[in-house]
Structures are given as structure tokens and as C-alpha cells.
Design goal:
256 residues, 8 helices, seven-stranded parallel beta sheet, alpha/beta
Length: 256
């Protein structure tokens, strides 16, 4: 909310990172805090994990607060945005990371499954962006970063709902860039490729099918910290001339 005055590029900024109790979301929250931002750590129900991330940030000398909220619920989203305003006095950065990565054969995906996944990925990003906008336009450097996925561009088997949601985020990002440009608010999408994360094996294989098909040119999978570094750049002073873009971070697995 205030101009950066210290050595860290995000000093004085306030950020919300949805779905930040673990994996890429956690890495983003920790990175933004390390670069000076006060961060709202969010999950739908994982209170213990949220508190652990908040404590990790505090232990490193950063500022953070936890907020349980379902991004598909309008009142929860308003409360999430309010948490940033009430605790830190404003909002400069919104990272829409909350998502579910399930795998299922097309014939077994029910309409309820389809709607649930799209609601988390697309409705959540829309609701958060809409609620955050009045505060972001007050910032001198408002930024929205949506977290997509490589299969949103390349496609992938057994994840019709996830692929569709991630592809839809690219369209949403472009629309946000157009609508918010006059206010100096940027909107970009970071599309991770194959990244080493802990997966909920009750809903997705430990190694998703597309991991066996695609091979990174760099010969390894990425890390959550590497994704977080790109997000931090887009949120900071070096990202102010980028908007409406999809940034692929996949070690050369998918070449756009």
C-alpha cells in the first residue's frame, strides 16, 4: 500500500495468497514475505497448516496473518479481503493460487465434480479479483497474479475439468488486464510445468499421467521456490510493464 523504501522490493506492500497452506502457494507466501510484503495466508479449512506457514514467516522476521476462507463463497471472500485491510491497512497484491488437481476419466466426471473444480479455479479467482479491485486501484503498484498450469495450454488426459479451468484463467487474466489497465493495476498468469510438490493421492496420482509423457528440456522438475520467484518478480517493480501475459515456467517442457 505504501511506496517501497527499503532494500527489499516489496517493502510496505500487502499481499493475499489464496491456497497458501502448502506447496506452490506456501512458497509464494514465504517468498513475498521475505521480500518485504505483509502476507495473508489462506486455506479453506487447514487451520494447522496455515498457522505453520504464518509462524515460519514470523520466525524469519516477516509479517503474516492467517485467514480460513472458501474462495467460492462470496461472503468468505469479502472477509478474506477485509482481513488484509483490517490487519495491514490496505491491499497491493492478489495471488489467485487456490485450485484442486483431480484426475478422472471423462466418463466418470459428474456434473457436480465439473462444477466444483471450475468453481474453485475460476469462480474463486473472479470473486477474489472483484472484491480486491477497489483496494488494488488505491495502490501505487497493484498487481494480480493468477496461477495456471501447463495443461491449460498443452492439454492432458483424465483432467477435463482442471484443464478447462486452467485454460479459462488465461482468458480471465486478459480480461482483468484490459479492465484494470487504466488504474495501473497489472494482471498476469504464471503457468507452472512439472513441479515437485506433495500431492493428495486420494484424488490424484503421486505422479500425474502427463508427467510420464512430457520431459523438461532442462532434465529435471522445477521447485515451488522457482515458481515463487517468478510470481515475486511480477508483483514487484520489475514487473510493472507486464500485463495480460501468460508466463510459462516449465523447464522447456512446453514451448509457447
Amino acid at each position: 500500500m505504501t511506496q517501497s523504501t527499503g532494500q527489499r522490493p516489496l517493502e510496505g506492500r500487502v499481499a493475499i495468497v489464496t491456497g497458501s497452506a502448502r506447496n506452490i502457494g506456501k512458497a509464494i507466501a514465504v517468498r513475498l514475505a521475505a521480500e518485504g510484503a505483509a502476507v495473508v495466508v489462506n486455506a479453506r479449512s487447514s487451520r494447522e497448516q496455515v498457522e505453520q506457514v504464518v509462524q515460519e514467516i514470523h520466525d524469519s522476521g516477516g509479517q503474516a496473518v492467517g485467514c480460513l476462507a472458501d474462495v467460492t463463497n462470496e461472503s468468505d471472500v469479502e472477509r478474506l479481503i477485509g482481513c488484509a485491510i483490517e490487519t495491514f491497512g490496505g491491499l497491493d497484491i492478489l495471488v489467485n493460487n487456490a485450485a484442486v488437481r483431480r484426475e478422472a476419466k471423462l466418463q466418470t466426471v459428474s456434473l457436480e465434480d465439473w462444477k466444483e473444480i471450475l468453481a474453485i479455479i475460476l469462480d474463486g479467482a473472479f470473486l477474489c479479483a472483484r472484491a480486491a479491485t477497489p483496494h488494488l486501484i488505491k495502490s501505487s503498484a497493484g498487481a494480480i497474479v493468477n496461477i495456471g498450469g501447463m495443461t491449460g495450454s498443452s492439454g492432458g488426459s483424465d483432467r477435463v475439468h482442471v484443464v478447462t479451468g486452467k485454460a479459462g484463467l488465461m482468458g480471465l487474466t486478459k480480461a482483468l488486464a484490459w479492465d484494470l489497465a487504466d488504474y495501473g493495476v497489472t494482471a498476469n498468469l504464471v503457468s507452472p510445468g512439472m513441479v515437485e510438490t506433495k500431492r493428495d493421492t486420494s484424488t490424484v496420482a503421486a505422479k500425474p499421467k502427463h508427467h510420464a509423457i512430457h520431459k523438461p528440456l532442462l532434465g529435471r522438475r522445477g521447485t515451488a521456490a522457482e515458481i515463487a520467484g517468478v510470481v515475486q518478480m511480477l508483483c514487484g517493480p520489475d514487473g510493472r510493464f507486464m500485463t495480460g501475459q501468460t508466463v510459462h515456467v516449465n523447464g522447456g517442457t512446453y514451448l509457447n
